């Protein structure tokens, strides 16, 4: 490959790269925005489930402790 052929090849590659669109079309932008929104909703949903599950576990533990204390007091003469 001589220098002229190499320069021609570089020029052709440069022209080919310029032809490729780098900006997303309106449909592609809309799809990307919807995908981001869907992912954000999914993360918010998982976070809400985790928070409510932890709250339920803490409430159950609290109710269990209260039940154990009440049962202990009832068995030891306190009404």
Structural summary, described in words:
With 79 residues, the chain is mostly helical. The chain has one domain (23-79). It has two helices and no strands. The longest helix is centred in the middle third of the chain and has 50 residues, at 26-75. The protein is rod-shaped. The model has no long low-confidence stretch (mean pLDDT 90).
Keywords:
mainly alpha, 85% helix, single chain, 79 residues
What's the arrangement of secondary structure elements?
Layout: H1 3-19, H2 26-75
Shape: rod-shaped
Major β-sheet annotation: none
What is the total domain count?
A: 1
* Order of secondary-structure elements: HH
Question: Could you provide a short overview of the structure?
Answer:
This protein is an all-alpha fold. It has helices at residues 3-19, 26-75.
């Amino acid at each position: 490959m001589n220098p002229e052929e190499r320069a021609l090849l570089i020029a052709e590659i440069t022209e080919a790269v310029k032809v490729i669109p780098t900006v997303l079309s309106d449909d592609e932008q809309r799809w990307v925005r919807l995908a981001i929104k869907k992912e954000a909703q999914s993360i918010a949903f998982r976070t809400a489930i985790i928070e409510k599950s932890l709250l339920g576990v803490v409430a159950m533990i609290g109710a269990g402790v209260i039940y154990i204390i009440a049962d202990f007091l009832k068995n030891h003469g306190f009404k």
